[in-house]
Write a structure and sequence with these properties.
Helices cover 24% and strands 36% of the residues. It has 159 residues and is an alpha+beta fold. The strands form two sheets. Strands 1, 2, 3, 5, 6, 7 and 9 form a seven-stranded antiparallel beta sheet that branches. A three-stranded antiparallel beta sheet has the order 8-4-10, with no helix packed on it. The longest helix has 16 residues, at 43-58. The relative contact order is 0.21. The model has no long low-confidence stretch (mean pLDDT 96).
C-alpha cells in the first residue's frame, strides 16, 4: 500500500519555521528563539500540532511502529525545507533507541497529556547541538515530537 501524500499545508508550515532558522547554529539557545517566534499557543505551532494529530489519525504520519513507538519521516531534507528533514514520533511513557545527531536536532514537543514531557521538556521547543546523543524519553503521558534534522542526518547507536 503506497504512503498517503503529505498535505502541502504541512510542508508550507514547516518551511515557515525552517526559513526562520536557516543559517542559525543548531545549538540549545535556538530553542529560546523558536519559543519566541513560534510559541505554543501561537498560530504556526498550533497549526503544525493540529496537522500532526490529523496526520496520525489519517495515517500519513507515524504509520510505522517499533517497540511501542510510532514514527515516520513525512518530509525528506530538501531545498523547500532549507535542508531539514521532518520526522514525527508518538511516544507514551517510554525510552527510545539511542542515537546521535551529527548536525544537531530540533524538537517540537506536543503533549497529548499536560503532564507529558520529552526529555524533561514540556510543550514547546528543545534543541540538541551537533554531535549530541541521547535516548529520547517521554514521561508523564503521551506526546508527539516533531524532529527537524539538518540534512536528515541521524545515527542510531548503542548507548
Amino acid at each position: 500500500m503506497p504512503a498517503m501524500p503529505v498535505p502541502e499545508k504541512f510542508v508550507d508550515l514547516i518551511a515557515t519555521v525552517t526559513a526562520a532558522i536557516d543559517g542559525k547554529p543548531v545549538e540549545p539557545p535556538l530553542a529560546d528563539f523558536l519559543n519566541q517566534q513560534f510559541p505554543p499557543g501561537g498560530g504556526v505551532f498550533e497549526a503544525i500540532q493540529t496537522l500532526c494529530r490529523q496526520g496520525c489519525a489519517e495515517g500519513w504520519l507515524c504509520a510505522r511502529e517499533a517497540e511501542g513507538i510510532k514514527f515516520g519521516r513525512p518530509v525528506k531534507a530538501g531545498e523547500r525545507t532549507h535542508g531539514f528533514s521532518v520526522d514525527v514520533v508518538e511516544m507514551q511513557d517510554i525510552i527510545g533507541p539511542h542515537h546521535r545527531h551529527p548536525r544537531g536536532e530540533i524538537d517540537m514537543v506536543m503533549p497529548f497529556d499536560e503532564t507529558a514531557k520529552f526529555d524533561g521538556t514540556p510543550r514547546g521547543w528543545k534543541v540538541y547541538g551537533p554531535n549530541s546523543a541521547h535516548r529520547p524519553a517521554v514521561a508523564g503521558g503521551r506526546a508527539l515530537v516533531l524532529y527537524l534534522l539538518p540534512q536528515g542526518e541521524i545515527e542510531f547507536t548503542r548507548g
